[in-house]
Amino acid sequence: MSLLPSLLLVLALVALPGAQGACPVPADLKHDDGTRTCAKLYDKNDPYYDNCCKGAELSVEPGADLPFLPSNWANTASSLVVAPRCELTVWSRAGKAGKTRKFTSGSYPRLEEFRRGIFGHWANAISALYCRCY
């Protein structure tokens, strides 16, 4: 059996865009002084993963408890990244009301892929959040 088909398969898999897209690696969520950031939210929404995690960004510090997001960020986030050993809890309504979801460490380039109830998704639906690191 020839190795050529196996090598071509491996090359094809490497060439495909990953689920991470342009999002930063979770371990890279740090300030210049070495202190870490709990999570970052991005407002760029695109069907191509390489165009996600761009645009305006909101850095969330460990222990941040925001029952009301800044007015320009309410229902705006479409991508997010959570640092290692951290957890981001989000709500669909201000005041920590409505649907809720927990995002653990990782990159989430398209929040449209995460269901919020039967008919909704989490893109442009985050109105409150709490981020903790352990």
Structural class: mainly beta
SSE pattern: HEEEEEEEE
CATH architecture: Sandwich
Count of alpha and pi helical runs: 1
Supply the CATH superfamily name: Crystallins
Gyration radius (Cα, Å) is 17 Å
Give the beta-strand count: 8
Q: Which class in CATH terms?
A: Mainly Beta
Would you kindly provide a written description of the structure presented here, covering whatever features stand out?
The strands form 2 sheets. Strands 1, 2, 3, 4, 5 and 8 form a 6-stranded antiparallel sheet that branches. The chain is globular, with a radius of gyration of 17 Å. It is mainly β and 134 residues long. About 12% of the residues have low confidence. The chain has a single domain, classed as Gamma-B Crystallin, domain 1. It is built from 1 helix and 8 strands; from the N terminus they run αββββββββ. This is Syncollin. InterPro entries: Syncollin.
Descriptive tags:
134 residues; mainly beta; Gamma-B Crystallin, domain 1; 6-stranded antiparallel β-sheet; two-stranded antiparallel ribbon; cytoplasmic vesicle; membrane; exocytosis
Q: Care to give the gist of this entry?
A:
This protein has 134 residues and is mainly β. The chain is 9% helix and 35% strand.
